[in-house]
Amino acid sequence: MKPQKILIKGGVIVTMDPELREFSRGDMLIEDGRIVAIAESIPGVEDAEVIDASNFMVLPGLVDTHRHTWQSLFRNIASDWSLSHYFTGLHGTISELYTAEDTYAGNLLGTLEALSSGITTMLDWCHNLNTPEHTDAAVDALVATGARVVFGHGGGHQHYQVVSHVDHPREDVRRLRRGRLASDNGLVTLCLAARGNQFATMEVTERDWQLANELDLRISCHFGDGEWGKGRPIAALAERDMLSPKLTCVHCNSLADDELKMLADAGCTASIAPDIELQMGHGWPATGRLIKAGIKPSLSIDVCSSNGGHLFGTMRAALGTQRGFDNEEARNAGKACVDEMQTTCRDVLEFATIRGAQACGLEAKIGSLTPGKQADVIMIRTDSFEMTPLNNPIAQFVYNCHPGLVDTVLVNGNVVKRDGKLVGVNFEEMRQLAYKSRDAIVLRANGKNGLKLDGTWVPKQYHTAV
Ligand SMILES: [Zn+2]
After folding, report:
1. What residues of the chain score a pLDDT lower than 50?
2. How far is the CA of 85 from the centre of ligand 1 (A)?
3. What is the 10 CA–ligand 1 centroid distance (Å)?
4. Distance from first CA to last CA of the chain, Å, rounded?
5. Deepest of 28, 77, 396, 464, by most Cβ within 10 A of its Cβ?
């Protein structure tokens, strides 16, 4: 068979590769899903599909390292809630009402939404797997989208009555690892989305870590979200030699500085979700403290039941908050403002690309436009208000881009979005599926805990042993 070739021609290329940097005008050749060359000019290639990029900025696909995708059906119901309301509303009310079909609908909607906004890789932190049928439906939806997804098996409703003594449904994870997610080379791969020692007992946590070792899986785990994080959970793991490069810590806000250092020393990665953390009371985003400790964080959406599903807002929230801190520190030191910006637009784009790839264990494959890597690529319209005139591509991407400017998306060399539309997706069918599931869940809830969808529902605060 002849190789499938795509030549992207004449674009502003932001590679995020430390050697290649940017091209004010460049070409990129893709063969059989892999980037083979990037240069100022690649002369005519036989049999290649040519994509004219003369009005586009070309970048690596974005990476979201933690999203509870199933919640997409309840978009923005939690936008005015604290973490405590969220626990009652989502985990104490809605979660157990999902059928496997609803899980499919939520994951399909959320993953396509992400893909359309330029997120080519997502870690689906799926913690509503009440039965193996829910698990299969969740994975079916991810596979159907054509996105690159790390499926984080996170147990179900019954595992989120914190602090939990209930074991993770280990057999369901083993079943996936021996079956459809046995390979780490597919588009959809597996990791363990563990509760960890904030949400479950240390005994349960130790068994989860053993499971991840047994199945050779990475672990993603929430730490340092609000009061829970103040009990030194990372120090407890360090004492037991349970920190390793295979662990990604989500949030990290209320972890102590010496715990962040323990994470860095062990080679762990981090995922911050600044919009949610600021809203729900997790504490200030740990961006600067993590960097100081030696970890450049990745970015995540967390819950679309509260914030938006695209990373542009997340990049801006991460940057704005950290710049506020840096300026305050300078003022406290008697200066008018910082001498130079501590956190730059390039830094935050790095968080959204290469650091995301690293937190998914995929840095050898994706995260930058580098010959040899898989072609996960996005193209942004520059014939738009936001990009005219194009003076500073990285800053304009960070501060001015939105999903409407994401024109073309490639995953593994496959064009999944073209001319602003997802390829082969029946939007109306997906929309109806989403409404049908959402309405059925609301009907089953029958007013439980006051659930209604007119924007006035604020559930009672969840009471835990914090
Ligand atoms: Zn989360």
Report:
1. 465-466
2. 14
3. 40
4. 61
5. 28
